[in-house]
Structures are given as C-alpha cells and as structure tokens.
Specification:
Layout (H helix, E strand, L loop, with lengths): L15 E3 L10 E3 L11 E4 L12 E8 L5 E4 L9 E6 L2 E6 L1 E4 L49
Antiparallel strand pairs: 1-8, 2-5, 3-4, 3-8, 4-5, 6-7
Length: 152
C-alpha cells in the first residue's frame, strides 16, 4: 500500500519542441525550432494545428534520419495533414502559432495480466465528433452510459 515504484531511463534534454517551419501533407521532413538528441527509430508525435474539430489530425511517426545538428528530422512515412508554424505581428507584439513535436519513445508502458473475462470492445461512434461551441463540455453521445456511472 505505501510502496514506491520508480522508473529511470536515459536523460533526454529536449522531450518536446515546436516546428520551425510549416509542413504540408505529404512531406517527410520536418524542421524543429530547437535541436534535439533524438535517434533514428524513435517514435514521435505531431500535434494538430487545425481548428477545434481536428482532433484526428494528431500524428505519430518514426524517425528515419536526423541531421547532425539535430534540427531536421526525416520521417519514415509522409505526413497526412498540414502542421503550421507561423509568426504574426500585432502592433508591437509577435505571436507564434507553432505545431508541437514530442518524443514518445520515452513513454513508459506498464502492462498487467491479460484476462479474457474483463475484455470488452467498444466500437467507434458512427458519426464524427463535433465539439460544438468553443469551450463547451460536449461529449460524444454514442458513449453515454457505457462507462459505468457518469456524473455531471
């Protein structure tokens, strides 16, 4: 009950950063805002930069090459979506809108035993998810009542 479990891995100084330039769907090379020490074969994620209904535009990829300076990454597969990296000036303020890139290889996966008695498959909703109004607490209604007691 009162034990401690610690996991330690190789130190990675930069575990996430931003895109330095916009990348288009179909591109296989991304340029980062700061250098990384990631390696060929590492698993990375690119966050969506589209509108509020673009949750399916997050992407996971594997690195096939990385430049010596750590700024340019070549992906094993082409991107499916555009990911932006822009700066806009409003008066004397510069606002950056840049897609995030994260290293997933460092994630620790803990698995328990597999028991057929507890396996349940929930099918995906038939209709696309619509978050409704901005900042709403909308829920995919096809999942209502499938996760035990729902409060709120």
């Amino acid at each position: 009950r009162n034990g401690t479990l610690e996991f330690h891995g190789e130190y990675v100084p930069v575990t996430w950063t931003h895109l330095a330039t916009t990348v288009a769907a179909g591109d296989t090379e991304i340029t980062l805002k700061q250098p990384v020490t990631w390696k060929v074969g590492d698993h990375i994620a690119l966050a969506t930069t589209s509108d509020r209904s673009s949750m399916k535009e997050n992407e996971e990829h594997y690195i096939s090459a990385i430049s010596a300076d750590g700024y340019t990454i070549t992906l094993q597969e082409p991107l499916k979506y555009q990911h932006i990296s822009i700066e806009q000036t409003f008066g004397d303020r510069v606002v950056e809108s840049r897609g995030e890139v994260a290293l997933l290889t460092r994630s620790i996966l803990i698995r328990g035993s597999y028991n057929e008695a507890f396996v349940e498959v929930l099918p995906a909703c038939e209709t696309e998810f619509d978050s409704g109004a901005a900042f709403s607490d909308a829920m995919q209604t096809c999942f209502a009542g499938k996760f035990g007691e729902e409060l709120g």
